[in-house]
Amino acid sequence: MAFAADAAFDFALFSFNGIDYVDHSTRLRGISEVHRILTKDGLFVFSSHNRNALPPRTAGPMLQFSPDPRRQLRLLKTFIAAWHNHQHNKKLETSAAEHVLINDHSHQFSLLTYYIGKKDQLEQLLRHGFDVIDIYDNMGRRLSLDADDCDSPWIYYVARKV
């Protein structure tokens, strides 16, 4: 079911790495939908977690301690929820040549996060009818395709529908 008409928008924004919290096939359908709703030469701007800057892997949540009993109780509740999330989600992790879906620490281990490198993201966009205009690191510096991006946890993409 389409919620917007074909070629209805000149600009689409998917902010805060939101595209990274769906599985691979849903991500590709989302990119196709953005292409469908954009006018010719319409812009698609989004950010995505950078596979070249994966966070250090941890065994899971860590219990924090506080001398304040009330705060310690809150910390214990948070830890139990995160531990439960991690036990469930770590089984759902996947790794492919193009991307990985991992259960990282964000949102108390409650989500799987999609990580992809610049070259693979460009290929995804090209396959869906986009031309990438610019790429930026998390500090707003323009990146070339071959630039070292290991210190940028996410990358911003500006693509045009062709």
Comma- or semicolon-separated keywords:
single chain, 162 residues, 7-stranded mixed beta sheet, 4 helices
**What spatial form do the alpha-carbon principal axes imply?**
elongated
Instruction: Assign the structural class, choosing from mainly alpha, mainly beta, alpha/beta, alpha+beta, or little secondary structure.
Output: alpha/beta
Task: Count up the domains.
Answer: 2
Biggest sheet layout: 7 strands, mixed
Indicate the CATH architecture of the largest domain: 3-Layer(aba) Sandwich
Indicate the percent of residues in helices. Answer: 25-40%
Remind me, CATH topology of the largest domain?
A: Rossmann fold
The number of distinct helices, counting runs of at least 4 residues, comes to 4
Number of strands: 7
CATH superfamily (homologous) name of the largest domain = Vaccinia Virus protein VP39
Structure description:
Strands 1, 2, 3, 4, 5, 6 and 7 form a 7-stranded mixed beta sheet that branches. The model has no long low-confidence stretch (mean pLDDT 95). The protein folds into 2 domains: 9-51 and 117-161, Vaccinia Virus protein VP39 (Rossmann fold); 59-116, no CATH class. Helices cover 30% and strands 27% of the residues. It is of the alpha/beta class and 162 residues long. Helix 1 links the parallel strand 1 (9-14) and strand 2. It is elongated, with a radius of gyration of 18 Å. It contains 4 helices and 7 strands. The longest helix is centred in the middle third of the chain and has 21 residues, at 69-89.
What would a concise description of this structure say?
The chain is 30% helix and 27% strand. With 162 residues, it is an alpha/beta fold. It is elongated.
